[in-house]
Design brief:
This protein is mainly alpha-helical. It is built from 10 helices and 11 strands. Helix 1 crosses helix 4, helix 5 runs parallel beside helix 10 and helix 8 runs antiparallel to helix 9.
Length: about 300
């Protein structure tokens, strides 16, 4: 169950004025006010085709993800999977006897015909955690309505939102680190470094070892032609957050500390708590990734 007070608004519905003129509604289906609701749905209608409805729906999903990053709140826009199900025979009986169409609850984007009145078996739509004023949420949603996202950025946004669901500091920290890694596009190493790797590859090819071991080592060496994860993280921080500090550290140094803590945590199951406070790192990493994602999407053009 999710905490109440997801978006603060005293009424059950709030009109969203989207930039392209589309009429949409932010509402809760399980309470008398949005502020008391545990799950929220964004709905809209009047589309001429299913394709146009899907197109706008995908834009809204991306905009909600970006709004979550801007407001630093957890957002789960779903994976278009059914979370509630009604037998088709029952659906047909209700439609024939009452003229009402029942559709299964979908966590994510759901498109359906408005030919008949519709009832959803349970609830659907994005679920947003942590309080935020409805007017501010609406404003930020409109700001990112035309944001251009790559697949890698969309994955990172989903991981950022998911991190807010984790109750333990360690799980939240690791999810946020994974979010940062999802954004990486490692650069090729220098010619001299690649020549050195080539020599190691040739040495392994001629080595007197089993074929399975040889292929395993060669596979590992292939990854060395690109910069390491830690190098790539530092480069990304310097490029996009060069003038910012987190936990009193320059961005590149901060993400290095985070990745070192991640490696220690994953490989040993813990960190030296007298030197590393995972809770503090997670809180600062949340801010770091918010700034980074906003910078990356701004460079795409909004």
């Amino acid at each position: 169950m999710h905490a109440k007070g997801v978006i603060t608004h005293p009424e059950k519905r709030y009109d969203l004025k989207l930039p392209n003129g589309t009429k949409a509604l932010l509402s809760t289906l399980d309470a008398e006010s949005i502020g008391e609701g545990k799950e929220l749905v964004i709905s809209g209608g009047g589309f001429k085709t299913e394709e146009s409805a899907c197109s706008i729906g995908k834009v809204v999903k991306d905009s909600v993800l970006m709004t979550g990053v801007k407001l630093r709140i957890g957002v789960d826009t779903g994976k278009e999977k059914t979370s509630g199900w009604v037998n088709p025979t029952i659906k047909n009986e209700v439609l024939n006897n009452h003229g009402v169409r029942i559709i299964n609850d979908v966590h994510g984007l759901s498109v359906y015909s408005e030919e008949y009145p519709v009832k959803i078996f349970s609830t659907s739509g994005p679920t947003i955690f942590c309080p935020s004023n409805a007017e501010k949420f609406s404003s930020e949603l409109c700001n990112y309505f035309s944001a251009t996202l790559s697949d890698k950025q969309r994955l990172a946004l989903e991981l950022y939102g998911a991190s807010h669901y984790e109750k333990s500091d360690r799980a939240r920290f690791l999810t946020l680190i994974l979010c940062a890694e999802a954004l990486l596009e490692p650069s090729a190493r220098s010619d001299k470094e690649r020549e050195l790797i080539d020599s190691l590859v040739n040495f392994i090819k001629d080595a007197d070892i089993g074929n399975e071991e040889r292929q395993s080592i060669l596979g590992s060496l292939m990854w060395l032609y690109k910069q390491s994860i830690s190098q790539s993280l530092r480069k990304m921080a310097e490029e996009h957050l060069g003038g910012k500090t987190y936990d009193k550290l320059p961005a590149a140094k901060f993400i290095t500390v985070c990745y070192e803590a991640r490696s220690t945590l994953v490989h040993t199951g813990g960190v030296n708590e007298s030197q590393v406070n995972i809770g503090v790192l997670a809180a600062q990493l949340n801010i770091y990734l918010s700034d980074l994602l906003l910078s990356l999407v701004a460079k795409n053009g909004t």
